[in-house]
Amino acid sequence: MAEHQGAGGTSTEFDRLERDVVDHFFTLQPGYAVFLGLHDYDGRVPELSRTATDRWVEGVDRLLARLRGTPATELSEARAIDRMLLELLLESPRFDILESRDLDRNPMVYVGGISLTSYMVRAYAPVADRVGAIVRTLEAAPRLLDDGRRRLEVALPKPFLTLSLAIGGGLPTHFAEAEAFARSSSPALGDAVKRAREPAEAAVTDFLDRIRNEWLPKATDDFALGPERYQRLLWVREGIRTPFEEIRREGEADRLRNQARLEEISGGAANVHARFETLFLDHSSAAELIPTAQAFVAEAKEFVRSHDLVTIPEPAICRVEETPSYGRALSTASMNPPGPFDVGGEEGIYYVTPVDAAWTPARQEEWLRSLNRPMLKNITIHEVFPGHYLQFLHFRHSTGSLARKVYLSPSFTEGWAHYCEQLAIEAGLDAGGWQAEAAQLHDALLRDCRLLASIGLHTGGMSVEEATQLFIDRAHFERLPAEREAIRGTFNPEYYCYTLGKLRILDARRRLLASTFHGSQRAFHDRLLSTGAPPVGLLEQLLLAV
User: Cis link prior to 142 (omega < 30° from 0)?
Assistant: First the structure.
């Protein structure tokens, strides 16, 4: 990693400690380093055996002692904040290993750790170099899966197993895409991927067979973190000490506000279903889906600029593509942004999951209804402008410390994008038409219910069936997608992040907009994005310290 210089241009002891922390973090999370654009980590796959992670945790404890032993008098206010970020950067994966015990309980860690996407979608290096990283990743896959086979417990939560099958089932297609990518450059490169691909696929097949034949028959419903670990999760991810019950009350209050507004624009509670049905019918054809999303990208960019909501660093170019096949089981739409260290340009890739030609006509229609035009526009605001893509453009241009370039808070990134949906309505998206606001409220209610389900499932004994009913009754979902949302909460308690982050940003805006930013939303948003993507528990402190 390039050496980070202190404020005076010379390397200090704390600068060296900062680099040691980040380097140690990336030995466990090399894929995250690649996502950020640090391509020295290309093709690396972590060692996840118990011996390797015990050794890694020992290193964490030494680094935490060094961080906490650094006298506060030696640090500026900004660097004191950086020290907290570095502590959380280490505490977070330490929690995953020792407290939530993901490596012992969740097969998704292993099948989800084999991704070749970064090497195919961005031309940051010659194709041969990127194919080399693909080959190294594939060659390491059998060892990674063997670590999982040896480490995973006998009785595992059923939702973790079923989702692992869905993710793992898409890997052979993903490997085939990588081979086709390599072969399009040269037959020799294609052959190299093929040689590495065959044992990797065999290892995936064996791992999935073990899930079906060994783990699924003994599956349990024991997925909950429990109150103590849930509270700890809020700290290590977001620097939040607020009791989760208070966060639950804030989420319920937001849900009630959103429901009341939805009923108001619908002419009463009895009309909400009819309003949504009108919304669902306004959808493109399967062939028009991607072009429609691309048009919405251009429209959203112009909306942000014309309403002076936030600075758009140029160049700001985002293309729309179909979600890769291996990612379609878990994604409706997503953003692949340029990392803060990436040399491959500013371009973003907005993935939208298309209709599957193998689906029945009824299933195809259901999917298109869920991606109706008002909701697809709301998704585009979330994913592209002024949401994730624009945030990452600011992230790339920020001049913060190494700690701030590396830390990526889920509640900041998703909270900002979710906040942007509401911001667009406040600014008069689609001339204030009810369709745009109904789509925004539909997604806001979904995110409110995610927060409520997360807390209920992991601290309150809520069952998957009760969580499913929550999404049906309160988010206006049909049973199948409601069940999918409930199951997601069992393995991803952090899907509280959308509403939690949005509420923290709204609170900071309410408290600081007039006094600190003289009423300028653009100034507030630019300052907010200049902080990087920090834990939202430190948000107000950072806004005042920049």
Answer: no
Nearest-angstrom CA–CA distance, 160 and 101? 13
Tokens of 449: 């219910």
Listed residue (443, 382, 436, 368) closest to 413, CA to CA: 382
What pLDDT is stored for residue 8 in this prediction?
38
Interval 506-536: pLDDT, tens? 999 999 999 999 999 999 999 999 999 999 9
| Token pair recorded at residue 313 | 């660093």
- Copy the structure tokens of residue 493: 């308690």
What are 320's strand-pairing partners? Answer: 350
Residues of the chain with pLDDT under 50: 2-10
CA–centroid distance for 25 within its chain: 18
Could you state, in order of their start, the residue ranges of all structural domains in the chain?
13-218, 240-545
β-strands 318-322, 333-336 pairing: unpaired
> In this predicted model, what pLDDT tens digit does every residue of 443-467 receive, in sequence order?
999 999 999 999 999 999 999 999 9
pLDDT at residue 26, rounded to an integer? 98
H-helix or E-strand spanning residue 117 = helix 117-121
Q: Give the closest residue to 389 by CA, choosing from 345, 425, 426.
A: 345
**Which of these, 54, 85, 43, lies nearest to 401 by C-alpha position?**
85
Cβ atoms within 10 Å of 256's Cβ, excluding its own:
12
Q: Rounded distance, CA 489 to CA 493, Å?
A: 5
309: nearest Cα among 132, 522, 133: 522
Give the H/E segment covering residue 404.
helix 402-406
